[in-house]
Every structure is written in C-alpha cells, then in structure tokens.
Write a sequence for this structure.
C-alpha cells in the first residue's frame, strides 16, 4: 500500500531553485561525471560530485581536477573535503573555475583515511574547527555553500543539530544528514527519525540520507525525518534511473521515457566514461557498465520483494514498462 503524505515543497539553495526533491549522493568511485549526467538525464533533481580534497587540488592533482569537472550538468555541485582553511579556499576557486554552481562541504565521510587526516566526519568532534572551515569556504565562494554530515561521531555525541544551526548562522544554505553516526560506518539501519532533530534546529532546507533503496520508500523517509528532500547513494548504484523515479513519484508522477531512449542514454554514458577518464578503474572506482546497469538484476528481486503490483501503484500514475527501472520488473 502506498503511504499518503503531503507533497514536499520546492526548495531553494540560496538563490537557486531546485527542480525536485530527490538527489544523487556524492560517492567516490561511483558518482563520476558521466554517471551524474546519466542520473540527471533520468530526472535526478540534483547530483553531487565525488569528494574532492582541498589539499589535493592545491597540490595540482589531476584526479582531483577531473572529479571537479561538471560539463553538461544544469546544476554542478562540487563536494570539497579538507582540514586546512587555505586549502578549502583554494578548492573553492578550482571548483568555481570548473563551473560549480554550488559547493558542498563533506563532514560525513567515515573512512579512516579521511578521518585520520582530521577531515570528513572527524570534524564533528571539533565544531569550532568545523566552523572555521565553513567560514573560510563561505568567504571564498561566490556561489551557495551546503554541508553534508552524519548524526554525530557516536551515540554519545549526536551533535548534528548544533553543527547545523551554527553552520546556518555562518551562511550554509542547505544541510544533508546521513542518519548514522560515524561509529556506525554503514552498519545497522539509518535512523530517519533522528534527522528530525536537525530539521527542528534550522530554517534552511534539510535533506535526509541513508538506506533509501526504492522510490516507494521516499514518502516514509520524508514523513519520519521531516526533511525537505531525500538523497540516494548506494540505491542508485547500477540503477541510475531510481532518483528520477523518486523525484517523479514525490511529484505524483512517474517519468515517461521509452526503453529504447533509456538504453541509448546508458550506452552513450558508458562510452563517455571511457572518454572522460582513460583509467576508469583508478583507485577502486567501479566498472562503468556495472555502475549503470547492474540494478537490472537486483531490481527484479527488489521489485518483486516490494510486494507492489502495477495495479497498486497505478493510483499515482505509474506506467509499468515506460522507463528502464520498470524493465527490471519484466525481465
Ligand atoms: C562507495 C561510496 C563512496 C562514498 N563517497 C562519499 C563521498 O565522496 N562524499 C560523501 O559525502 N559521502 C560519500 N559516501 C556516503 C554517501 O554519500 C551516503 O551518505 C551514504 O552511502 C548513505 O546513503 P545511502 O544509504 O543512500 O547509500 C560514499 C558512500 C559509498 C557507498
């Protein structure tokens, strides 16, 4: 049965009007430029780059510059990570030179490689330092700056509401919250209810993130979190159409694309990946074909497992077979 909730309102990131309420999460090794373009083409409301280390762009890393590129995107969001104010400011300049419309700051990455360098989610252990980085980034940017975080470092330090409030006061225009602590990494279940504490603390848009794997779950996520939009990460791996479907379902309609046009877009995107990055398997990045289509296999299982039948989804205008995601149900 579909949950009936109020439709999410359109949101703005500072002066920018966002076209819908479902976003692609930044994912290193996955959300490269061709993948982001494909998700956007399938209707994702916003797409965020892989994280780009401020220190890496400052040292002239070619990979970092590649990660910051955004040709062909209507709205280009570059995510920066770092611990030095100067490097963050330099990262902003490189991102803006690459056409960034929005800069996102990463304070959620749990990886030891990042937290040992005292960036990512480690910044949630020292909000004063986090605020200095935010101040430096906002001061350097001529475009809106947003922030992505977790609920806190661990269950004894759930300080996301405090960080969000201080960030808003420092000029941050939107916050995304992954409903886990850093200690949880990716274990257990994301706590969507806890995101409500952030929503209550700020007046800027709040985006809920964590464990959203099917469009039908989005209304429940918004209901539990009180958030204004949802962000999908792993659920989009191999299923680049899922974010557009989610955005469309939240707007009470499904995207209408022929299967042929979906397949053509995927094939073009695979070719684009190879042109974009001559070494697409660098640093553990995912195989481009699997990144874009492996969900056709798992999608069949998850669709069947959802217990939904076309007749049940028909009341929100579902059109089985009209987009690539639904192809999975018929394979
Ligand atoms: C392979 C992978 C790479 C990720 N890279 C980033 C990153 O570069 N920046 C970031 O803020 N989060 C990163 N994340 C976290 C995701 O953006 C997201 O917060 C997390 O996966 C939870 O959302 P999900 O359950 O929808 O996947 C990464 C996650 C995965 C699985």
């Amino acid at each position: 049965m579909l949950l009936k909730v109020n439709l999410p309102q359109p949101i703005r990131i500072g002066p920018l009007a966002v076209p819908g309420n479902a976003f692609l999460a930044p994912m290193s090794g996955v959300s490269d430029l061709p993948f982001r373009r494909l998700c956007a083409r399938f209707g994702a409301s916003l797409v965020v780059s892989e994280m780009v280390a401020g220190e890496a762009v400052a040292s002239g890393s070619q990979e970092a510059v590649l990660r910051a590129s955004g040709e062909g995107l209507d709205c280009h969001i570059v995510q920066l990570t770092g611990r030095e104010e100067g490097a963050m400011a330099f990262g902003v300049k490189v991102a803006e030179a690459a056409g960034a419309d929005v800069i996102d700051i990463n304070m959620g990455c749990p990886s030891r490689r990042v937290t040992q360098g005292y960036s990512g989610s480690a910044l949630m252990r020292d909000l004063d330092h986090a605020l200095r980085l935010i101040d430096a980034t906002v001061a350097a940017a001529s475009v809106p700056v947003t922030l992505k975080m977790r609920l806190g470092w661990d269950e004894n330090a759930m300080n996301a509401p405090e960080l969000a409030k201080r960030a808003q006061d420092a000029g941050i225009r939107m916050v995304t919250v992954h409903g886990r602590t850093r200690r949880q990494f990716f274990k257990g279940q994301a706590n969507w209810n806890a995101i409500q504490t952030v929503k209550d603390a700020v007046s800027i848009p709040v985006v809920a993130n964590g464990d959203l794997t099917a469009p039908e779950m989005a209304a429940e996520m918004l209901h539990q979190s009180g958030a204004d939009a949802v962000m999908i990460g792993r659920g989009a791996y191999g299923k680049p159409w899922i974010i557009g479907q989610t955005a469309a379902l939240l707007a009470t309609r499904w995207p209408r694309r022929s299967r042929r046009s979906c397949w053509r877009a995927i094939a073009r995107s695979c070719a684009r990946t190879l042109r974009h990055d001559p070494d697409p398997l660098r640093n553990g990045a995912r195989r481009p074909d699997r990144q874009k289509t492996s969900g056709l296999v798992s999608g069949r299982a998850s669709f069947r497992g959802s217990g939904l039948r076309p007749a049940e989804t028909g009341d929100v205008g579902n059109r089985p077979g009209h987009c690539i995601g639904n192809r999975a149900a018929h394979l």
In short: The pocket of flavin mononucleotide is lined by residues 25-30, 50-51, 79, 106, 108-109, 148, 178, 209-212, 232-235 (CB under 6 Å).
